[in-house]
Fold each of these.
Amino acid sequence: MIKIAVMGYGVVGSGTVEVFYKNLKSIEQKIGDDIDIKYILDLRDFSDSPYSEKFIKDFDIILNDSEVKIVAEVIGGLDPAYRYVKSLLQNGKSVVTSNKELVAEKGAELLKIAREKNVNFFFEASVGGGIPIIRPLHHCLSANEIDEIAGILNGTTNYILTKMAEEGTDFSDALSQAQALGYAERDPSADINGADACRKICILASLAFGKHVYPKNVHTEGITAVSTEDVQYCKDFGGAIKLVAWARKEEEKVAVMVCPAFISESSQLSTVNDVYNAILVRGDATGDVIFYGKGAGKLPTASAVVSDIIIAAKMTGTSKSLYWEDSSELFTVDYKSLSNKFYVRLVCSDKSKVLSEAEKCWGNLNILRRNDELPNETAFVTESVNEEKFAADCRSISEYGEIKNIIRVLDY
Amino acid sequence: MIKIAVMGYGVVGSGTVEVFYKNLKSIEQKIGDDIDIKYILDLRDFSDSPYSEKFIKDFDIILNDSEVKIVAEVIGGLDPAYRYVKSLLQNGKSVVTSNKELVAEKGAELLKIAREKNVNFFFEASVGGGIPIIRPLHHCLSANEIDEIAGILNGTTNYILTKMAEEGTDFSDALSQAQALGYAERDPSADINGADACRKICILASLAFGKHVYPKNVHTEGITAVSTEDVQYCKDFGGAIKLVAWARKEEEKVAVMVCPAFISESSQLSTVNDVYNAILVRGDATGDVIFYGKGAGKLPTASAVVSDIIIAAKMTGTSKSLYWEDSSELFTVDYKSLSNKFYVRLVCSDKSKVLSEAEKCWGNLNILRRNDELPNETAFVTESVNEEKFAADCRSISEYGEIKNIIRVLDY
């Protein structure tokens, strides 16, 4: 009989307990042993719960119970999750988690402790909810060099951008709708400013490229500046605006960024709508592989947690290859050294002057149109240009017109 | 040092050797041991190959070499692959294979021998080429009840259908193009008659539902009857024609079918084009998850074979849960008892008569239009109707008009 504990009884925690007991018979078949939840840690009172006798409020009970071999951490956030998980691993218990912030900030350190203690630290649920991605990526890696990963990793922002594209809703109304439907939190900042997607691409990039990519070293832009005008111009471009988190190998380093982007309609990513997520993995042998599904939600995320529990229960000893090393900030390329195509929207008194200056800087421009275009408005897509040069060019172009928005054009 | 053998040095076999040696260092890191290919079995002469000293023509050398622990079978077909694989497993060697025919016809028997001998029989490469699907499905299963699987599992037919939809090419020209590009074999029958897709859905259904689904019990229709007219009507319907292989749980049984189908453009499957494959897995906890990528090709398939080799090398003892039992034909539901919506195209002298008869049989009809529609031609989509009743109705409708084609309308 294997005893486990679940820390946190919020949305994912209660889902984990639900999925666990619903599938207990098949789980035990897969493990080849009996298994049960011994403790559920939560500071709140759940005396009415059918599992009321399992609830505890004192973390040390789990830490010091040698019978508990596997702990699911579904509290979220860094404090106290980081402290708890670190102590558990140091005490020789395997931990599975859905906590993307924890893995993105502390993954290398926790994986190292897990390896030293010969236990497992698994985190399938931290990216893509119920989409199997961590483990397939890990398996892909064995016979592939991963060149690039690009994902729509945040369901809230994808819902907002879908509403804006399909119904012409403006950003703030689309956000309100997302909140009303429970897709966005009351404080939606981590979603709309890109921080959530950033954590997730850090986890994927760390695994794919073998060294920790820290969120603070990733250039991250959210979607708050995306306007209905941009959405309309993107339709003329022939695509959709998506919040894309991407990471690419650059010799011994990695380039990583989170930004709203024009995605051509010929890309599978352009048709990923509503709260769905998709992750494109570009391997040298497999080519492009895409994983698609609901990136959040109680049961999808819980099912990923339970899958990890099962694998942790089946494995003896630590997974040697589901691992990455720590790194310095030198591991990430300064985004200013990268090159991209850019969409630029501006207002100006003399269009032909602005466009001729822009052509001097950025090569042939793909001029875009929209209905209801204002007489003094223009928008175009540049050729590929270095980020730093582009920013400097923008300052000089600003003499001739007011740049209203800039969005990268990515080719996935 | 782990010694392995590769049987078959065709497209996938030579790719397997290539991917193996290209990634040898990272493979050995993952396994935590040295590994090498000791033998390559092929009846042809490869004395110019850099691996010429490894080539053998006598299978018994591999069978009787106790140093060889893992064998990759990439010969294809049932004979001699079945005989070889069976003997290898019985002799206590693990086998990994890309051979869909072998797994679809003999999977239950071979998995049983593998379990008895405590070795592994893996087949990630048999479905979806380089798309990780067998193992993610297997992991999904632990915390999910799989309700349904639907896939575009054959790249050749998907290429043909894409050409027909995008360029108005007719079936035989599109097939010729596929052959010229090497996407279709000189004898394309197993692709275009659905047999290849049938084998693959049998493997996925067997794994998902726990009992062997045999190809002979699966109602299988190919795409040879699909015409440019059908493609045009499908555009008016708002979707695309795809060859869909699907399996659905029906209480203690499974319903499985391979058929061309109208797929609404709101479905992710409708935008899977060219030689790409996609597999939708509908789980009770995860919801819909889709796996997308190149379903064939030398390196994608080889990378899946090599991934399996790595896992076989890391595992001690057989995988207990990557398994299904044998079954009788009673495990599959007779397709005649199922219900579906149908697209019907017919020519007739009296349209209103035909349509009123059709409405009596099949409820409200969604009448479709196309450019260049002939005066005596009509096409529509029915409501959901039992397959057997529909077939009988078609016979009576035929008194009023000639039915030119029938295609199911599936909702994925």
Note: Chain A has three domains: 2-129+300-314, 136-294, 339-410.
Amino acid sequence: MENIADEVLKGNRLALAKAITAIENERENATEIMKQLYPHTGNAYVLGITGPPGAGKSTLTDKLAKEFRSRGKTVGIIAIDPTSPFSGGAILGDRIRMNDLAMDEGVFIRSMGTRGSLGGLSHKTADAVKVMDAFGVDVIFVETVGVGQSEVDIVKAADTTMVVLIPGMGDDIQAIKAGILEIGDIFTINKADHDGADKLQTELNMMLDLDGVMKDWRPPILKAVANQNIGITEVVDTFHKHRTHIEENGQLTVRRTERAKNEMLDLLDAKIGQYVRHKLVDSGKIDGYVEEIKSRKTDPYTVVNGVMENMLK
Amino acid sequence: MENIADEVLKGNRLALAKAITAIENERENATEIMKQLYPHTGNAYVLGITGPPGAGKSTLTDKLAKEFRSRGKTVGIIAIDPTSPFSGGAILGDRIRMNDLAMDEGVFIRSMGTRGSLGGLSHKTADAVKVMDAFGVDVIFVETVGVGQSEVDIVKAADTTMVVLIPGMGDDIQAIKAGILEIGDIFTINKADHDGADKLQTELNMMLDLDGVMKDWRPPILKAVANQNIGITEVVDTFHKHRTHIEENGQLTVRRTERAKNEMLDLLDAKIGQYVRHKLVDSGKIDGYVEEIKSRKTDPYTVVNGVMENMLK
């Protein structure tokens, strides 16, 4: 392939896959590809989907993607896969096999893990979003399997964030609800045919009431049964409603400026991290430091100060 | 309080709490405290507890802590709380209220979040472990609520890591199992009185068999019903067994060297991140960059390269 970025811009799906692989594996050409694609970004609408494991996020995302397709939109799905560092992306494989979406040329599905990573997952996800954006996809889902801080940070970067919950989750559900209350623009109770859906909806409503701060957008709490295709059009309609809302009140611009800022800092962190690892780890210098730290001749705080003085202007 | 570190070393519980708060909030005195405490670390045994939300990790950890207490050990518990950035640690409050452990002078419980954070959670957790270690606690539990990458990284840093699962978790359980297979030294199926416990045990055994690589430690798969105090002594016995095993084969030293290395790199990342944010964000310089990026006059990759050239020697 002559020039991967050119091919991505021409709509070559293989080039799209190659570009994301280059990002994921931190290949040398990744930065060059991103530089070339960057001017062509900013057109796609980015939807974040998060929630606890077992909430049926993948199924729901797939149904939503189909609904967007039936409305004439092309769709990208980036599934953040916390297991990739271990399993090498087995889940995506399973997902593709089971998924008739994969046969649709208007859909592009990709999982992102931290496999082989030196830098962070969040700037890689941001770059993958940009590649799909430049490719010309209309709507991009960023779906996180985890409920950890890094996953929350990732979906926070979306234009609109939806939190998926299900009735009757164990002990930690209060914790999860508290944690996600402030990031959800939309809440969807999936598996709403199970016992406890109304109770969960009432609880969420109460928590949103208690949230106190006057907001010009009250997050709707929707119900769906994704695997029976129930509630899907309503969710997509609500996405559109939220998008129109934040376009009109200027919040979309604010969010995207914030995103650009955070992405720049993430990228800088990752690149400096690479530089530091190169200087310390690849050179083997770190082993001497670690021995001195372990034997308590010195402490990590003193060593880190010294290293920074040597590295930074 | 004259000198927090001195007071920690004398066994002052209030000083211990203050030291961890200083770390969590990145107070100016945090590094000085850590430098003073560092020479007194290395004696505690660190146990990582992870697993999906709803697995009953808190209850299990509390029962294990009681068992260690009944064997004459003092215990520290650090609960990594992904909701703290949002909710201000409400969970810990709930936990303390419900928890008779909090009345025991031989137990110290603390939650860690990313609230108010500029740096990462993982170096703060590492520092909190060291404070408890220097304080003189025998066993330290690091318990993560999430299943995300950052949480996994945190428990990976333990001497022994236990993964807690429960029967009959939804769609994502396969994903979780794949992800945690390689980090678990011990697996415990909690709520083992529920349907599906035997099935889960069989599946885990099969996955461990398929894992292929010859290992000198086959992770045991235990069963427990934490809220009925069933299986607790066996888990603690297995912790001891694993500890003896890795002490004898030298793996403990290897793990601790690896931990010291990763902690140093984490600390360096966090400190450099602080420095970068200070230089760019606090000075307001970043806003100009972001505007140029947003208007597509330049791209983030070019900006980051330029910033690095200006900052690094």
Note: DSSP finds 14 helices and seven strands in chain B.
